Amino acid sequence: MTATGKPAAAASLRGGPRRGRVRSGTRRGVPLPLLLPALLGLAFLLLPLLALVVRAPWSTLPDQLTSTEVWQALRLSLLCATCATLVSLVLGVPLAWVLARTDFPGRGLVRALVTLPLVLPPVVGGVALLLALGRNGVVGQWLDDWFGVTLPFTTAGVVVAEAFVAMPFLVISVEGTLRAADPRYEEAATTLGASRFTAFRRVTLPLIAPGVAAGAVLAWARALGEFGATITFAGNFPGRTQTMPLSVYLAMQSNPEAAIALSLVLLAVSIAVLAGLRDRWMTAS
Amino acid sequence: MTDTDRTTPGPVPGPGGDGGLDARLVVERDAFRLDVTLTAAPGEVLALLGPNGAGKTTALRALAGLVALSDGHLRLDGAELDRTPPESRPVGVVFQDYLLFPHLTALDNVAFGPRCQGASKSAARERAAGWLERMGLAEHANAKPRRLSGGQAQRVALARALATRPRLLLLDEPLAALDARTRLDVRAQLRRHLAEFEAVAVLVTHDPLDAMVLADRLVVIEDGAVVQEGAPSDIARRPRTDYIAQLVGLNLFRGHADGHTVRLGDGPTVDVTVTELLAGDVFVAFPPSAVTLYRERPAGVSARNLWRCEVAGLETHGDLIRADLTGELPLAADLTTVSAAELDLRPGATVWASVKASQTHAYPA
């Protein structure tokens, strides 16, 4: 792709990096009534993170992080978030395509419903999932009867809860990218004999890959931090459904030092995600 | 594709029979209605010429199947295509800005069509390589589209469209995206490739020069309807609408002929003397260079074909000055910079315009 030697993790967008223009002489003459709250706001956002770093039990940190519970929770978190992201990709990208490229009655409503989990309190999502997929749920009872599949309070349940919360992020991101992409490439592919699906697979998907990647990272980060839906739908069993956020919450009550250590790990992961997306976000506008 | 693959012997003059294109395209959309009939024999190059918004591109998209027909029919080599989805039509399209897939190399862009038609990856690539070689692009096979110049991209787009062996090749403003310098070369190359193409080619353009150089026959579309069609030379000599007259650079008037005199319709009656002996509704055309301007009413010139006008505007036109005149007869006149200066022409000035009967051309409307 581009000749610049940037890390490949960056969702290398066409047009190349446009960094280095962030501060371009707009600092002069910022009115005080704007500057003061702005600085306060910045401090408000950064101070807690700073406190986390300052108060971290650096001396005992290696021991905290090498304990089996931490590794168990971390492994489970990474596994479940990754699975939830895959589920979101498999279901969410086609959903985004349908929302962006087709026109059907009630499309606006469907779109609104897709975004509902974005604003829904995750605990409510968890309750709703129990009612739908729980052992006595609307669909869950059939799953149990016919296939012997039980989702609540299992690792698969964690994946379901995380995907429920995270998929809208992916759908919205991919739909936006699709809308920005030129649909005439699909037409060109069609005139070359490609079916609509082939056109999607061989032309559209590669073209929107950066957007899909960004959406996937976003969904993955959201899944990693998921708490409410997970604990409601999947419970809190160490090694099976206890993900990092759950174990942070639990540790906070018994072993605050461990909670801080776990939080630091999650913070590091978040920063890594942000770094991976910097081209997309930090150069915006 | 090699020459031995061809099944059609060569261009057959004149539309008709089973071969070629036979279409009536009706597309209704909001307040716009397109209704054009297009026929072309195999080997023929048809140019759809018209102003922006006339419906040329819509006609092209209807031929490709990207826009559904509201009415009419579409037959290609005797086969009905109206209900055939675009991916199953034997139609190749060169889009205005080419729409080369940016993530694929030139070779894979050209191989895309054969792949979709079921060729194996290596066979498709082999065929694509052959096409690129024919276009003189063999060394750019592995370049991504954004590394190609405008002219090269145009040829890759043409190769990509031809690689599916279409029976109908559509070109949407094939030269519009090129700068003037490249245009000259690409136009000549495109002309050669179109001459070699054995099936029907339809190109859309708003540039009369492209149309005349590339096409065997012009179809002029205005407001969704065909206003004139014929050989380029015929259309250039005998325009039938103001738009075409402007394109080919002629003053055009419609009137009623009685012998050598044509009485022009609108406004106060104006007579034009012509050489042709005609009766009934006619067009009168003459080039702006045939118009002579005088500041005072010329004494020695006969009163025939002499009109009092006012200069509405002046602009440079090549190395000439073109004067737009209003008054008894609205017309355009070309004159040299020197004579423009001598006449002291400026907007608002009154002038006398005359044209010799021998330089006019009248033909039935």
From TrEMBL, chain A:
GO terms for molecular function: molybdate ion transmembrane transporter activity. GO terms for cellular component: plasma membrane. Residues 74-275 form the ABC transmembrane type-1 domain. It is found in: Cell membrane. Its main location: membrane. The chain crosses the membrane at residues 34-56, 76-100, 112-133, 153-174, 203-221, 258-277. The gene is modB. Residues 1-25 are annotated as: Disordered. Gene3D superfamilies: MetI-like. PANTHER family: MOLYBDENUM TRANSPORT SYSTEM PERMEASE PROTEIN MODB. This is Molybdenum transport system permease. Belongs to the binding-protein-dependent transport system permease family. CysTW subfamily. Residues 16-25 have a biased composition (Basic residues). Signal peptide: none annotated. Part of the binding-protein-dependent transport system for molybdenum; probably responsible for the translocation of the substrate across the membrane. It comes from Streptomyces doudnae. It comes from the Bacteria. InterPro entries: MetI-like, MetI-like_sf, ModB_ABC, NifC_ABC_porter.
UniProtKB/TrEMBL annotation, chain B:
One of its GO terms (biological process) is iron ion transport. Keywords: ATP-binding, Cell membrane, Ion transport, Iron, Iron transport, Membrane, Molybdenum, Nucleotide-binding, Transport. Residues 300-364 form the Mop domain. The keyword Nucleus does not apply. GO terms for molecular function: ATP binding. It comes from the Bacteria. InterPro entries: AAA+_ATPase, ABC_SmlMolc_Importer, ABC_transporter-like_ATP-bd, ABC_transporter-like_CS, ABC_transpr_FbpC, Mo/tungstate-bd_C_term_dom, Mop_domain, P-loop_NTPase. Gene3D superfamilies: 2.40.50.100, P-loop containing nucleotide triphosphate hydrolases. Residues 18-248 form the ABC transporter domain. Pfam families: ABC_tran (PF00005), TOBE (PF03459). PROSITE patterns: ABC_TRANSPORTER_1, ABC_TRANSPORTER_2, MOP. The keyword Repeat does not apply. Residues 1-21 are annotated as: Disordered. PANTHER family: SPERMIDINE/PUTRESCINE IMPORT ATP-BINDING PROTEIN POTA (PTHR42781), SPERMIDINE_PUTRESCINE IMPORT ATP-BINDING PROTEIN POTA (PTHR42781:SF4). This is ABC transporter ATP-binding protein. It comes from Streptomyces doudnae.
